[in-house]
Amino acid sequence: MKRTLLRWLATGGALYLLLTLAIFALQDTMIYYPTRAPETALFELAETKRVEPWRSRAGELLGWRRPNSTAKRKMLVFHGNAGFALHRVHFIEALQALGGGSEWEVFVQEYPGYGARGGETNEPSILAAGRAALDELAALDARPVFLMGESLGSGAACGLAGALPERVAGVALVVPYGSLLEAASHHYPYLPVRLILRDRFDNYAALARYRGPVAFVIAGEDEVVTAASGLRLHESYGGPKHLRLFPGLGHNELDYSSGAAWWEEISNYLTQPRP
Question: What does the mean pLDDT of the chain come to?
Answer without folding.
Answer: 94
